[in-house]
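Entry type: protein chain
Record version: 2
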Amino acid sequence: MPVQNIRGVEINYEVVGEGGPWVALVTGGRRGYQEFIPLSRKIAAQGFRVLLHDRRNTGASDIRIDGDEGEEEIWADDLVLLLERLGAVPAFVGGTSSGARLSMLTCLRHPQAVRGLLLVRITGGAFAAGRLPNMYYGQFIEAARRGGMAAVCATEQYQERIAANPANRERLMAMDPQRYIAVMQHWLDLFLRGPRAPVLGMTEEALSSIRVPTIVIPGNDNTHSSVNGLAAAELIPGAQLYRLPIEDQDIPLLSFTEWAPYEEELANALAGFMQRVDAADPKETS
């Protein structure tokens, strides 16, 4: 797969589709982009070019544990630079879970780069706020305290990233564990700031300030409770709400792959929304 050097970090990416409006889709958690390939192909078949990428510290991209801003802010700035490098701005930007949060943050930080938002499985509420900080940061801080960088490298998530990009092990092992802990703690502190609902870390004022066309497709587990998706759709001016034929389940988390039976409908809903936006405000798509 191709890579682009974005602010000194090699970012792994893929473009699905040959022409049409640009769409950037971002997966949830710290997962690589591979799980979005089937969805992207379905969207590309309806006349779009879909950019998939592994954010820094995810997938096969380089690991760089550094930065004064929050990790999601760093991801948002990286994404816009990658889009600009590919001549893909303005683009529709969207994703699931943390990818949805990243999309909103990208719009708030770089409104000129975002043509519309595709928000799927919005994360919010007390359950998510209690679960995600340890998933993203706490467990790795504890590993570093317990056994240094070797213990960090031995965790399941980092094992996946090292397998995808073996050079990441050398980068991690070269880090001072105390520096790693300090950066991860800083990112955790920033992640814990702000509201819990309806969108984790995002104020109602920020949601109400979004001015691009937006579609919201709520999730259906405790981390992505539909109530938060519904509330976000109410707060974002003019947002279109689309509900899949699913019911909330009282379980911590459904993986995106478990939505496979609805992927065709999801792709059609997102593509149809973008086609309507494009018809109302056509841009250069060649």
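Comment: Strands lie at 3-6, 9-16, 22-26, 49-53, 91-96, 114-120, 214-217, 240-241.
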